[in-house]
């Protein structure tokens, strides 16, 4: 039974990271071919996801009542999640979507640094080594054939490492993180929809009607696959396979995004880019495995010694 549960977890982890990697597939055509602004795309993505999550919560008979004091931390988490989506989408204008998603995938390193800096977790040499080789990997992936680097695109993608890293730490450290996963996801996405509604008034000329059926289908796919399915599959993956396996299989996210970028959008990708991608994947795996070792060590230390 345990092996079957583990297999389920692996399947859900692959689905979660793979569907998240599909974001460029639906977002880039909306901007470049169907003429939608980034602000409108993000509003509709979060708005439609909120409706879908509400239906799921009702189907599961989840209690959506929350305390008034929870609104501020939930809105803060929603803002971090929204900023991550915003910076990632805007980075597509400067660097390839595959490179942007791969840079975003470095967020576990940010999480580890934040836990060491603010929550007194044990420092690790492997963490600093991982950070070093990840920087080399990013440099290799962003270096173009003309020998130049789009610093604006790298900067925007790098901001998602911070915003999503803080979001993950917030989920673990704030009391609202103890809410049922579907309820918390609903409110975080709802907060994002409100934020992008307000943002669109200033940056996107207000909320515009969906321009065509094709655009509507892209938005539905973006909301359903890259948000709802991805988030729920993540929850199930952690439940059945554990956080370590789920995090390791998260490497599907940049692999899918890079593949889509090359095959669908003819994005620049060379052997040098491949080396950079591998270095980034190795750096993240080092952090995840090092974190798992620390947890095992702490668990062993807490086990009482039997003197009989």
Report on the structure:
It is a single chain. The chain has 308 residues and is an all-alpha fold. The protein has 13 helices and no strands. α5 runs antiparallel to α12 and α10 runs antiparallel to α11. The C terminus is likely disordered.
Which labels suit this protein?
mainly alpha; 308 residues; disordered C terminus
Fold topology:
Elements: H1 2-20, H2 23-32, H3 38-59, H4 71-91, H5 97-104, H6 107-118, H7 125-142, H8 151-173, H9 181-203, H10 213-241, H11 243-249, H12 252-263, H13 271-302
Helix pairs in contact: 1-10, 1-11, 1-12, 2-10, 3-9, 3-10, 4-8, 4-9, 5-8, 5-12, 6-8, 6-13, 7-13, 10-11
What general form does the structure show?
Answer: globular
Query: What is the mean pLDDT?
Result: 85
Q: Indicate the structural class.
A: mainly alpha
Give me the Rg, rounded: 20 Å
Compute the number of helices: 13
Summarize the structure.
This protein has 308 residues and is mainly α. The protein is built from 13 helices and no strands.
């Amino acid at each position: 039974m345990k092996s079957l549960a583990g297999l389920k977890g692996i399947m859900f982890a692959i689905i979660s990271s793979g569907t998240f990697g599909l974001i460029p597939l639906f977002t880039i055509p909306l901007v470049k071919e169907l003429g939608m602004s980034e602000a409108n795309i993000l509003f509709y993505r979060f708005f439609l996801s909120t409706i879908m999550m509400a239906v799921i919560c009702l189907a599961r008979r989840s209690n959506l009542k929350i305390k008034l004091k929870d609104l501020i931390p939930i809105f803060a988490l929603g803002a971090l999640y929204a900023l991550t989506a915003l910076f990632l989408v805007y980075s597509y204008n400067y660097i390839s979507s595959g490179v942007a998603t791969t840079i975003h995938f470095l967020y576990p390193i940010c999480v580890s640094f934040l836990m060491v800096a603010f929550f007194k977790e044990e420092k690790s040499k492997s963490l600093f080594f991982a950070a070093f080789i990840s920087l080399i990997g990013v440099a290799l992936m962003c270096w173009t054939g003309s020998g130049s680097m789009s610093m604006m695109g790298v900067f925007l993608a790098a901001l998602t490492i911070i915003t999503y890293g803080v979001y993950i730490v917030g989920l673990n450290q704030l009391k609202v993180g103890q809410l049922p996963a579907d309820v918390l996801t609903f409110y975080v996405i709802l907060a994002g929809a409100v934020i992008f509604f307000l943002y669109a008034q200033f940056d996107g000329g207000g909320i515009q009607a969906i321009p065509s059926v094709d655009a509507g289908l892209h938005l539905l796919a973006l909301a359903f696959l890259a948000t709802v399915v991805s988030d729920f599959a993540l929850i199930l993956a952690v439940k059945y396979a554990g956080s370590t396996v789920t995090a390791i299989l998260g490497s599907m996210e940049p692999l899918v995004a890079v593949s889509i970028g090359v095959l669908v959008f003819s994005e620049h990708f060379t052997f040098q880019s491949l080396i950079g991608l591998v270095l980034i994947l190795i750096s993240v795996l080092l952090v995840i495995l090092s974190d798992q070792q620390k947890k095992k060590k702490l668990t062993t230390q807490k086990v009482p010694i039997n003197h009989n």
